[in-house]
Amino acid sequence: MGKSGNISEWQVIVNPNAGKRKGQKDWRLISDLLTSHDIEYDYYFTKAKHHAIDLSVDLINSGSRKLIVVGGDGTMNEVVNGAFLQKIIPTTDITLGMITVGTGNDWGRMFNIPLDYDSAIRTLKNENIFLQDTGVIKFYSGTDVCKRYFVNIAGLGFDALVVQRSNRQKEKGHSSKALYFWTLLRSLLSYRHTSTSIEIDGKKIKNDTFTISLGIGKYSGGGMMQTPGAIADDGLFELTLVKKMRKGEIIRSLRRLYNGTILEHQKVEGYTGKRIIIDSDPLIHVEVDGESLGHSPIEFDIVPRSIKIIQGFTGV
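-> structure tokens emitted (316 positions)
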């Protein structure tokens, strides 16, 4: 529960389990720093998966307009979903800031959020506002049609499998960049390609596909650049399509995910679009912002410049 009975300027949503429980372990330090920087705040700990969605809806409905996320990419995703689920104000009236304590911190990397807590809080106080795009995805979970918003990246096919297996490790208390990379290599042994049908703003593409990444942001998997040309406020997704490859060729090409040259590979194609529909045989699974969702058929739409976030120093 919050520190006071009144609504403070800032509401802090803390995921205690983020970053191998860094959210809980480091909260005392973070709270002391917030106080030392004269930030007026109340705070709330999440208690379960998706709790941050409900918390943010309740806080916004109660009059809050500035939310700080203490967590990782998944916690930020939940708070953004809460911002879109509430119906009393436009999402552009809500300001989101972040203190990163997660494992990958790819959304924070995109917006130059410092990993050092004191510097991250100084960034919050500076309030350098950026109005970023939001993606909305419709997908299937069994026979049910579901909807979700996201602010960084979606992965389909092999990427979704790696995220699913990595999340199982997180649930057991194991999480690191090295573990994610090891899970990626192990998943190569069992994964098979999928025949996909992709429609990008009306243009249809058919391929035998290894993996698909669809980004608003550039980074995923703790610093990989699967959508290196993504621009977070241009009203477009960047889609990277990796065609069927031999496993040895995939392993030799992994360095391209880290140096930003993935689109230069002869079996990789890049596209941009506002509305993207993906179907497949067999079914292809999807994850967004590091959370496993469901399967094809899948529809993506962009909501341009729809959420206010506080970014770090851009060097401009």
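The chain has a mean pLDDT of 91.
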